[in-house]
Amino acid sequence: MSAIEGRVLTPDGFRDARVHIEAGRIARIEETGAIASDRLILPGFIDLHCHGGGGADVMEAGDAPRRVAASHARTGTTAFLATTMTAPLDDIEAALAAIEAAAEEPAGDEAAIVGVHLEGPFISRDRLGAQPDFVIDGDIALIERLMKIARIRVLTCAPEADPDGAMTRWLADRGVRVQLGHSSCDYETASACFHSGRHGVTHMFNAMSPLHHRAPGIVGAALAHARHAEIIPDLLHVHPGAIRAALRAIPHLYAVTDATPAAGMPDGDYRLGTQQVRKCGNGVRLADGTLAGSSLTMLQALRNLVEIGLSVEEASQRTSTIAADYLGLEDRGRIVAGAVADLVVLDASLDLREVIMRGRPIGGS
């Protein structure tokens, strides 16, 4: 058995405590009384929308999912959904097979791949964002085939691609979280979706019909009706004021990176699916200037949420616990006895000091 001590974020708030770890899980939490430590111990980050990192893109198949998993683990992401792009079906199937292989037996330095977020190809051509145009309509037989290759946990779908909702209902019956995104549908259609099987919103505010006071669009419907939504808090995709508006309106808003191969890498050119993107500073863009995912890490997402006014406790909830709850992962995203021992250790300045993954330290960066 090993142990780590500091200011531990438990479900009841920060406690001066020692976390005892056995066989990769939290055995018990022992309160120690006041200790002289600026070590903040939080649940490991959980990212439900991640395309790449460290120069690798999950759409490359091969060992790319493992390289992505290792890259994000170094900055505290301990579990994530490998996220695909709209692409030719052969490419999607190859990526899914590689993701499933990596998910089955993660190496010690790799974040756990807890499933797939299938972003497309069931989206609208009017709201491609950085997705290439390999759009198709919803197809139950096809999605059933894809689900036999890898565990799809979240699927982004535009109502335009599934107008009668048949595929959405089929997926919801099988526990898949169907999210509204990459769509130009109106407020009425989006509102109906939130009441009939779609569970959340993909990268809130981005690649969707915006809020206007006489045409509220998907954004208005989400603010009025959604209980879950992703948001990319790189402070580039969404203005801090819009993030705060969403925080007030959507109770289970959670952070994602939408990270590309450029995450953790220097400025320069990278591949994202079938397209070339360029990282410059905080932004990743197509040649025409369209934002194309991000270079965000979940560590920086936490810092940015604190920067715009959230407490560390709430920022941790929105970078870990809410995502775990959304997927029904009861043994992740919280520091309690019996949970997987996925922890991040920060100092008072929110600099990363250590990552503990499945009970073993992998170091920080």
TrEMBL record:
It comes from the Bacteria. One of its GO terms (molecular function) is N-acetylglucosamine-6-phosphate deacetylase activity. Its EC number is 3.5.1.25. GO terms for biological process: N-acetylglucosamine catabolic process. It is an enzyme of class 3 (hydrolase). Substrate binds at A130, N206, A207, R214, H237, L291, A292, G293. Belongs to the metallo-dependent hydrolases superfamily. NagA family. This is N-acetylglucosamine-6-phosphate deacetylase. It comes from Roseitalea porphyridii.
